[in-house]
Structures are given as C-alpha cells and as structure tokens.
Amino acid sequence: MSYLITGGAGYIGAHVVRALRRAGETVVVLDDLTSGVAARIPEDVPLVVGSTLDRAVLDGVLAEHGVTDVVHLAAKKQVGESVEMPLLYYRENVHGLQTLLEAMAAGGVGRLVFSSSAAVYGMPDVELVTEETPCTPINPYGETKLVGEWMARAVGRAHGISTACLRYFNVAGTAAPELADTGVFNIVPMVFERLTAGEAPRIFGDDYDTPDGTCIRDYIHVADLADAHVAAARKLAEPGPVRDLTLNIGRGEGVSVREMIDLITEITGHRGVVAEVTPRRAGDPARVVAAADRISTELGWKARHDVRDMITSAWAGWRHHRPQD
Amino acid sequence: MSYLITGGAGYIGAHVVRALRRAGETVVVLDDLTSGVAARIPEDVPLVVGSTLDRAVLDGVLAEHGVTDVVHLAAKKQVGESVEMPLLYYRENVHGLQTLLEAMAAGGVGRLVFSSSAAVYGMPDVELVTEETPCTPINPYGETKLVGEWMARAVGRAHGISTACLRYFNVAGTAAPELADTGVFNIVPMVFERLTAGEAPRIFGDDYDTPDGTCIRDYIHVADLADAHVAAARKLAEPGPVRDLTLNIGRGEGVSVREMIDLITEITGHRGVVAEVTPRRAGDPARVVAAADRISTELGWKARHDVRDMITSAWAGWRHHRPQD
C-alpha cells in the first residue's frame, strides 16, 4: 500500500503523514505550499509541489508512486474568507476534489479518506450531533465540505472507490512543537496571541443558552485525529464490498469558551487575566458536540488526549514558533 | 439589456428564448449542442456553439454581446445517468456554473436566473413543498442543482450579482410543435412512446400512500415556465439592492400517474388501453407538489395552462417529430 496525502504539509496533514509513517506505511505528499510548510514533512517523504486542480500532476503522482490510497486534506478552510471569496473555495475544495476523483477513477485507485468538517451541520439544535443530524451548512466553507462528501460517495459508488468522510470537530494541540498550527483562526492560538500581546482574550458573546452563557464546542487533539485517519484507511483496506463511511471525529464532550480560556490562562501562566466579552459573531451556534459512538464502533478508535493535553502541546508549539513572545 | 441563454437550444431553453423575444428582449444563445438542437433557435438569434466550461468562450460572448443578464439552463438532467456518471454531472453542472460565475464576476454581469429543480428536495414528506422545506437531494443530479443554488447565492452576495433560483417541478407540453421535448425521459413522452408502439403504458408502483396508489406530481406547462423566467429576470432588473430569490415553479396541484395516463390515452385516441403495473422504481417519492404562493407574491406570475393543454400540445409535438407513428 502506498498513500498519497494531499495537503500533507498543512497542520493536520503533517500529523496524518506522521501517524501513517509510525504505522509503517509508505507515503507521498502533494501540497501546493500556499499555506502548507515543506519543513513539516520528514526528509525521506517525497513532497510533490503542486495542486489537486492539476490533473497532469495528479496522474503523474498516482502512477509514479503506485498510489493505492488517498487521504485528501488539501483545501481552503477559513469560514470568513469563504464568505468573501466563495469562487476560490468552490474551485479549490470542490473542483480540486472533482479533479482528484477523476484521476483516481482513471487510475484505478480504490480508497479515499476525505477531510470533512462539523461545518456540514451548520447550526445544529441538538445536544449531540450524530451522523444522521440533517446537514444544512451556513457558509461556503461548510457547503464545499458537504458537496465533497456527496461527490466522494456518488463517485465511489459508480467507480468502486471505498470512501471515508471524516467530520472533524474542533481540532487543537500538536504532536510535536514543530508541527503546530501557526495560524490564529482557532480559539487556542487566538487566545495565545492575545495573552502574549498583553491583551485580554475575547469571548464572542456570553448570552448563549448554555450553562455559562458561552459557546460550547467539542475539541479533539490533532494526534488523535491523525490516528483516526489511519484507522479509517485500514478499515477501507479490509477485504469486502466497497465501503462508504461517514464518521464524526470528536470526543463527545462539550467545553465552553470560558472554560477553555480559564484553562489556557492557567497553563500559559496568565492566571487571573480577565476575558473581555464582545458581541456574538454571526453564524456561531451555541453548542456543537459530537456523538462519537459510530467511529468507536466502526473503527475501534477512541480519543486519548484531553483538552489540557491539547493546550499544553499547542503552547509548546507556540513558543517554538514564536520564541520572542 | 442583453440576455445570454446557456442551453438555449434545449427543450426548456428554446422556450425561454421564445418568451424573452416575445417580451422584446435581445438574446444570444450559448449551447454545446450535445443535446440541444440548433433548429430550435430563431434564425435571427445568435447561436454560439460552445460550453460553459470554456472560460474563453464565455468571456467572448459576454463582451461581444454586451450581456447584462444570464439565464443558465445548460446542464445534464437525467437522474439515472447521474447515478451512473456522477463525475460528468459534477463537471458539467457544478464546474460549468463555477466557470460562468467567474466570467460574470470578472465581466461585471449582475443578474443570473438559474435553472434549479424540485430534485433538490429529495423525498419530501409534506403535502405541499415550500421553499423552506429542507433540501436533501437523493441523487447526483439533485445534488448538483442544490450546489448550484448555493454557489449562485454565495457568489452573488460576494460579487453583487442578483440571483433567482427557479425550482422546476414536472415540466411538460410545448408552445409550438417544433420546440417539443424529443426525449422520452418524462411521463408524457414515455407514455406516447408506449402507446404508438402498441404497448401498454407502465405504472411504476400502485401501492403508494396516495388516493389511487400511484405517485402524485405537480405538472407545469413549459410555456408557463418560460414566462416565469421572464418575470424573474424582470424582477432582478428592478432598481434596488442585490436580490436573492428562490422560487418553486409549479401549479400547486397534484396529479397522479394514473390520472395522467387516463388523460393521455383519451387525448391521443387510445382510450381503453389498460396500463401495466410494474414494481416501484428506487427514489420515487409518493407525492411532490409545490406550494406555489411565493412566486405568485414575488413575481405576480401564475400558471395559465392545465394538464390537458400540456398533453395536447406535447402530442402535437410528438406527431410533428415522429410523423410515422
């Protein structure tokens, strides 16, 4: 077996590369390095710099590396940017996957793990989001992920490609400081940035219908997430009929924004800093927590790291990348 | 104002061209003629033979004809084929629209009427389907139509393009024999084909939970449908903010398959022919009938033709195209 990891130089992609290598697999990375970082890839892993929009590059990689399995993570992933630049998101996320699926069908590559998102659910009004909760995305980012699932399933059925669509909840932490998320689009790095600048962390609304009034999310350590990709890929490779898995990847536990900020200030040595409450952001649901039973039943996977692990490792990564802070 | 009609050589497209011309508008057609027929276009209407996947062709048409409004009908539309060939459907229907929207945004074209479908609703379990009924398409054709709506709305919002997504229910009939549907994918021509071959029309299941056990649909005359496009385009052109309309186009009246077959056998002079009942087809909902209030309120449009008009005109079209029958 030989794995192609698209977007393998990204934060999550690099963790998937690492997890597959630890599991003894052969890996090749395709990444256009617009947001990925080549240094995240081990030196003995081939890195092809190119786009999933480029059919010739895809055909070349699949053939030259004898690819049998694809893990497709290459995508744009900023919700706000997707509202401003929907054409970019549809092109990169939808047409990129279309081109990949065309290349896989033509090349006889029979297994695909697809990076989806809890954003497909939109504003779920349930205690726990199951894989059967209706999908009603509310921004182009979430739309492109749901379309990607539809395409993957339909093309899989028509062309005999087994698929696993993994719906990530809120990813945080790092398995190694050098692999840390260097963006500041998620709560953990956003709070790090405020704290190290001497500013109060922000809470976007504390009048939600939740116990402490702040939004509740389900955080998952990126190392656990990466292991789920390995488990999903292994499942698809088992003998049997063409598979079509759709799986939440979360811990099944809700943590509020205020609880996160309290933990982050404690772990980073900023205990006592008081968060500033600002108005709600548009499109933030009060509560998004995964029902995480299906993945456990289907793959035998369970999260091993708690929120404290995520913050502690992310903080080590932050200090690695920004030693001046 | 100058209208580009993509897919204008198709059955519905040619009716839209005709309706816009009768309303005094200037029209240019883009059609790749894979299923469209050039003879359906009036001789004094420019026909550009090309695909909406071809950005250079689009840029040329928009600039040369000073296009201000686009009615986008070019698409693949066979449900069964979409299951067999999802990559074709995603490419033509989704990437075709993506390319068109990119060209419109670049060329500053500010209005789009998009051909959507009741297929976006999937298997609705309601008496009347409103525009707020959840969209859960069950095949790639319906998926590509829902994605098209999402793209059109998101790109419209980001780039100042007013959009009208028209969800067609079951289209039948013709405004002129030479413009008739020449395919046999819908019930009216399917029954014509059986009757003229001396075979019994088929009913796919008579054990549905409906008064006569056969499926109920909402039929709309293609001439009424075409007029709705004119009304939608006119609405988008009114002064005011960027608009974002989503409208069912149906009559709001359910007709069962058995009622349709009875009417068709009567109108075509085959009264007394008994239909043959075969098992259900997968993916056929028992009842799909539009709530048609919104389009009437928003556009002042109302259907003028009943089912008898649809069958009578379609039969004249059938005899025109197959005089040997």
UniProtKB/TrEMBL annotation, chains A, B:
Cofactor(s) required for function per UniProt: NAD(+)
Biological process according to GO: galactose catabolic process via UDP-galactose, Leloir pathway
Keyword line: Carbohydrate metabolism, Isomerase, NAD
EC number: 5.1.3.2
Keyword Chaperone in record: no
Domain NAD-dependent epimerase/dehydratase: 4-241
PANTHER family with a match to the protein in the record: UDP-ARABINOSE 4-EPIMERASE 1, UDP-GLUCOSE 4-EPIMERASE
Name of the protein: UDP-glucose 4-epimerase
